[in-house]
């Protein structure tokens, strides 16, 4: 059974929406950790404890890591660098479809563009099956999503069209009915 799988993936890694919500979550987490740190600091002032020193140190590390992460997020246009630079490119060997060279697609238009691109594969695979006198056994399209490693937003990460074909079954028998005129009986005839 011949099968074709057509892939459509980003030429670079990235996302689809709102950095501001992710940024706000980081800021809220930093505030919560700072309050927790300050509480441990007050407890430490009244007693000398290595456990509290360790907890305060761990909280400081987490706060600093989150601040570094927050500094990497671009806020001027709402996209992090990874998302801003994401491009999409067809990775199949089908020369008649779009996105043969890497192209920028807006985060808002990525899903529609990938869906349209995968539909091109569906249409071309159906036409190819018809030309080759085959029937389509199975055909599906999957739109894939992922999470941006920089800003944490969800984005369309690609698509995949799967087509399974087989040769059309030959008609081996022709069934017909004939009447035997000598005795008046009906016969099924296999030709």
**Per DSSP, what share of the residues sits in E-state strands of 2 or more residues?**
25-35%
SS summary, helix count = 4
Mean pLDDT: 80
Helix content: 40-55%
Let me know the number of strands. 7
Low-confidence stretches: 12-17
CA-CA gap between termini: 29 Å
Task: Tell me the major beta sheet.
Answer: 5 strands, antiparallel
Briefly characterize the structure:
By secondary structure, this protein is of the alpha+beta class.
Which helices and strands, and how do they pair?
Blueprint: E1 3-10, H1 19-46, H2 50-72, H3 81-84, E2 87-90, E3 103-104, H4 110-131, E4 134-147, E5 154-167, E6 175-179, E7 186-190
Antiparallel strand pairs: 1-2, 1-5, 2-3, 4-5, 6-7
Folded structure, characterized:
The longest helix is centred in the first third of the chain and has 28 residues, at 19-46. Mean pLDDT is 80; it is low at 12-17. With 191 residues, the chain is an alpha+beta fold. It is elongated, with a radius of gyration of 31 Å. It contains 4 helices and 7 strands, in the order βαααββαββββ.
């Amino acid at each position: 059974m011949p099968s074709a799988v057509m892939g459509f993936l980003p030429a670079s890694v990235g996302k689809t929406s709102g950095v501001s919500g992710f940024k706000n979550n980081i800021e809220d987490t930093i505030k919560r950790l700072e309050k927790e740190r300050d509480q441990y600091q007050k407890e430490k002032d009244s007693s000398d404890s290595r456990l509290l020193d360790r907890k305060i140190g761990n909280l400081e590390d987490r706060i600093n890591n989150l601040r570094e992460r927050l500094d990497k997020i671009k806020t001027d246009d709402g996209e992090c660098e990874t998302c801003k630079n994401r491009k999409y490119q067809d990775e199949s060997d089908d020369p008649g479809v779009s996105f043969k060279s890497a192209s920028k697609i807006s985060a808002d238009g990525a899903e529609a563009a990938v869906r349209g691109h995968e539909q091109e594969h569906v249409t071309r695979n159906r036409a190819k099956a018809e030309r080759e006198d085959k029937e389509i056994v199975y055909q599906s399209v999957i739109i894939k999503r992922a999470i941006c490693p920089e800003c944490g937003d969800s984005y369309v990460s690609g698509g995949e069209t799967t087509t399974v074909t087989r040769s059309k079954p030959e008609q081996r028998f022709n069934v017909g009915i004939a009447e035997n005129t000598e005795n008046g009986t009906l016969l099924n005839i296999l030709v």
